[in-house]
Amino acid sequence: MNSLQLNLNHQVIEQQQFCVALDQFMLNNAINDRQRFKVITCTLEGVNNILQHTQCNAANITLLMHCNADRIIVDLLDTAEYHSLQTPTDCPDINTENGRGLWIMYNWMDQVLNQPTVLGNHLRMSLLRH
Q1: Which of 59, 69, 80 is nearest to 123 (CA)?
Q2: CA–CA separation, 123 vs 101, rounded Å?
Q3: Does the pLDDT of residue 4 top 70, yes or no?
């Protein structure tokens, strides 16, 4: 299994440097364009949700990516107080302020898990490789 770990900060997030690193890592692991787009979009949504909906500082977010023969796994770890995520059943209305990113994550990824950790939250998203 190949793994990548990035400790995020404001500059890396603002310049979306982590997206370039994720894309290159997936290219090196022969992940196709469509799946790379899904993974990067869902990862951006996850990071944005942490920053928008918690008191977590960007420097307290760790991003891990794993690629193996059958799956791509993204882990986002943060130090914010744990809040459970409601699985969206329908795409939010266009006029709704929040919820579309979560809906995208749950519909584009094969699995989305959110669980508490000793330090905060652990969001795991995985996508089967085709």
Answers
A1: 80
A2: 14
A3: yes
